[in-house]
Amino acid sequence: MSTGNYVIYKVVKQVKNILFDLDGTISDSRKGIFNGILYATEKLGITDFDQNELESFIGPPLPNSFEAKFNLDKQAAADAVDIFREYYADRGWSENEMYPSVKPTIEELNRRGYKLFVATSKPTVFAKQIIEFFGLKDFFEEVVGANLDNSRSEKSEIIQYIFDNHAIKNEETLIVGDTKYDVLGAKHHKMFSVSVTYGFGLLSDIHSVEPDFVIDECDQLLNILIGDQTHPRPERFSKPFRSAESKPFRSEKKFKTIVFSHPEEVKEEAGLINQLFDNGLDEMVIRKPTWTTTEIQTLLEQIKSQYHHQIYLCDKVELVLTNSIKGLHCSNAFYDSLTKMEQHQLHRTLKERGQQISISVHNPGEWIKRTGKFDQLYVCPIFESISKPGYKGTWDHQWLANRLTTNALDESIIALGGVSADNRDAIVEMGFDGAAVLGFIWQDTDKSVGQLKHLKNG
User: Fold this and answer.
1) Which helix or strand (DSSP H or E) is residue 33 part of?
2) What's the pLDDT at 409?
3) Element (H or E) spanning 123, and its range?
4) Which of 154, 244, 345, 433 is most buried, judging by how many CB atoms fall within 10 Å of its CB?
5) pLDDT (tens digit, 9 = 90+) per residue, 292-336?
């Protein structure tokens, strides 16, 4: 199932019920689980194993993990589970920490009327104890886990129990979890799945089962469920709500001037780019679809190194990762050619390197699709394109102004397409963070620097 505009719209409109996994999704329970496993192995005299591999116990049913990891028969695995539970019932369950954005997300979903459930392979008795320990009990319709006799331990069985005992429909239900077992359970019941990357599941495993969505923080679930422009954003994202850590609103940010390179070769291009930066250009996107990696690297080396941190390269991931530049600009064709996991890994790698990622959106549906993933979005074309005569935008300028001025969006939102000094004031008035130009600068290279100054001064 794609994460395209149709699916996001369908999720926003249809989902009424949300199932949360517990370990690795609501809380980081590894300390209590690891200590319980070590307690059991010590009691059983099992010493020949790598403690670094204990995370594989989190997610699947515990008897299965003991059998597979230590080559135990079913009876021996059952004995190991009993010993594990001695420790866990005593203190292991409380050796547990809730992930930071989980509680406010659950509170917001509950406030909006979603029915919430816990669906975990952990025994129900322990799961209920933990949920109450974190002060979450009142937000959930029911906490459902495995039975102590190890029955109903598969995720699909747990989900089935919830369907059997509550008047909910699979097409209106979504599960949030950190392992492939959550996704497989969702697929079995033909419901939506969201995988979180902060838990215990291996990214390769998550990729192999293709969840509908992948998120880095629990509160990004709100973007999936209420990201459509017809649904107000939650109070914690709305403009009147501020905190010491809040990002500045659009009106408080510096208005940026950005230039896209000409797609073809320009005479003395590097020198001209240096002049543009010398005269106050804030950022540049180098987009040369037909150029080789070597040709683009050569151009980059001819640009003053002091300006490299202001440059994005389009689609050239290998060059972005080997140069100290601002970041990567993705064409939609390139980005959509990646698998969901490749997209996620790309975002994570760039974030770890302190680099940014941007993309263009051409209609409200694309904007919704890209919301929350990118550092910078180019909304285009705002006016009739200068570089592509006859290419006109379909954006409703009043809708843009409303969205830009009533939401504290995390991304920088840049106007692109038909931008010139003549309409700069209109772009500022709508609430954009900046203006990006192509044709306005490159139509006459003898006037490029003067055009930049004209654009910056309005």
Assistant:
1) helix 30-44
2) 61
3) strand 115-123
4) 433
5) 999 999 999 999 999 999 999 999 999 999 999 999 999 999 998
Report in angstroms the alpha-carbon separations of 443 from 152, 381, 423, 437: 68, 18, 17, 11
Domain count, the chain: 3
- Whole-number Å distance between alpha carbons of 110 and 95: 26
What are φ and ψ of residue 355, in 5° steps? Answer: -105, 160
Q: What is d(CA 363, CA 404) in angstroms, rounded to the nearest whole number?
A: 15
**In the listed set 237, 265, 292, which residue is the last one of a domain according to the structure?**
237
Residue 50 lies in domain: 30-94
Written as one letter, the residue type at 41 is T
* 3-state DSSP assignment of residue 58: coil
The larger pLDDT score, comparing residue 454 to residue 1, is at 454
Query: What count of other Cβ atoms lies within 10 Å of the Cβ of residue 191?
Result: 22
CA atoms within 13 A on the CB side of 313: 25
Asked if residue 51 and residue 14 are part of one domain, the reply reads: no
Residues 84 and 202 in one domain: no
Active site residue ranges:
21
Q: Which two tokens stand for residue 409?
A: 């969006």
Q: What is the C-alpha separation between 348 and 267, in angstroms, rounded?
A: 37
Q: How far apart are CA 301 and CA 308, in angstroms?
A: 9
Q: Give the position of tokens 């959509």.
A: 336
Q: Which whole number is the average pLDDT over 415-442?
A: 90
Judged by DSSP in three states, 264 sits in coil
**368 or 434: whose pLDDT is higher?**
434
Q: What is the DSSP string of 166-194?
A: S---GGGEEEEESSHHHHHHHHHTT-EEE
User: Is 245 a member of any domain?
Assistant: no
Distance CA 393, CA 383 (A): 6
387-405 mean pLDDT = 75
303 and 423 in a single domain? The answer is: yes
Within 10 angstroms of residue 152's Cβ, the number of other Cβ atoms is 17
Q: In this structure, is residue 244 part of a structural domain?
A: no
Q: How many CB atoms neighbour CB 368 within 10 A?
A: 19
Give residue 333's identity as a one-letter amino acid code: A
Exposed, middle or buried: residue 450 (CB in 10 Å: 0-12, 13-18, 19+)? exposed
The number of helix segments (H) and strand segments (E) in the chain equals: 20, 16
Q: Which two tokens stand for residue 234?
A: 């939650």
Residues 451 and 419: beta-carbon distance below 8 Å = no
For residue 381, whether the previous peptide bond is cis, meaning omega lies within 30 degrees of 0, is yes
Residues 6+ apart with CB under 8 A from 437: 257, 258, 259, 260, 386, 416, 419, 420, 451, 455
Cα Rg, the chain, nearest whole Å: 26
